[in-house]
Amino acid sequence: MKDYVKWLGHAAFELMLDGKRILIDPWIRGNPKAAVKLEDIEDVDIILVTHDHGDHLGDSIEIAEKFDAKLISVYEIAVYASNQGVRNAIGMNVGGDIEVDGLKIVMTPSLHSSERGCPVGFIIVGSKNTVYHAGDTGFFSDIKYYAEVYPIDVALVPIGGVYTMNPVMAARFVALFKPRIAVPMHYGTFDVIEKDPKEFKDQVERKEPTIRVIILGIGDKLEL
Ligand SMILES: [Zn+2]
Fold first, then answer.
1. How far does the centroid of ligand 1 lie from the alpha carbon of residue 1, in Å?
2. Residues with CB under 5 A from ligand 1 (ion)
3. pLDDT tens digits for 23-37?
4. Strands 12-17 and 20-24, how do they pair?
């Protein structure tokens, strides 16, 4: 199966990398912009949770239990998931990396808040493509050093402002590490984070024209 990235709405994505189906921050139930219904989610191998706010932890625990998927998150959220009955909760911490199902998962910092542990992002390294999900974050620059070690093909970055970077800062952010493709997320779900993704695209093209910005519609699948 070809690698792809599919936007499920808000910060939720479905990735296919090396034949493994990965969900990131699968907030489906209660997500006003969800592209799928919970019962339509197909067999999942890995679930990555960036932090435990409701719009990110979402339905992770229920989906992990249904498919016996591995739920990977910061240590304290993994302990919580395990206590909720998830059999394959894997805890790690910022800067750490693990091998799961033939993929390398690297936990990156993010500047945000959370109830348990701390908020994070993930770099997922497959044999052909490397995808970075920034989580919810304000601007920070250490990501460029991570990307030197793990060059990023697709970066999923929040642009909604208020709780995360806005389009201008998000453009500066991706210009630091120059992914092949940048995809905006975490905007438009609620009025308070209504932003124009074209502003992000314009800013990136002005600052770093080598980066291709792809504005996905909710439910769109980007084949890699
Ligand atoms: Zn959020």
1. 30
2. 55, 136
3. 999 999 999 999 999
4. antiparallel
